[in-house]
Amino acid sequence: MFEELGISFGTVLIILLALYFIVKWAVKNGIKEAYRDITGKVTTENIEEEQIYDESNLNKEEE
User: Fold this and answer.
1) How far is Cα 44 from Cα 41, in angstroms, rounded to an integer?
2) What single DSSP character describes residue 3?
3) Going by C-beta distance under 8 Å and a sequence separation of 6 or more, which residues neighbour residue 52?
């Protein structure tokens, strides 16, 4: 079927895997955002990401 389009099976597999992870990432972020909107709480994962971001900005300012 894909050979008629000039696409190999390996290419189709890579595209499907990429789409899977993109959708998974989008759903995860959507759930986290909805949780934050509903409860007003920040998840521990977001707190860790903000700390890492803040530390990297401090290191750039020191240079």
Assistant:
1) 9
2) G
3) none
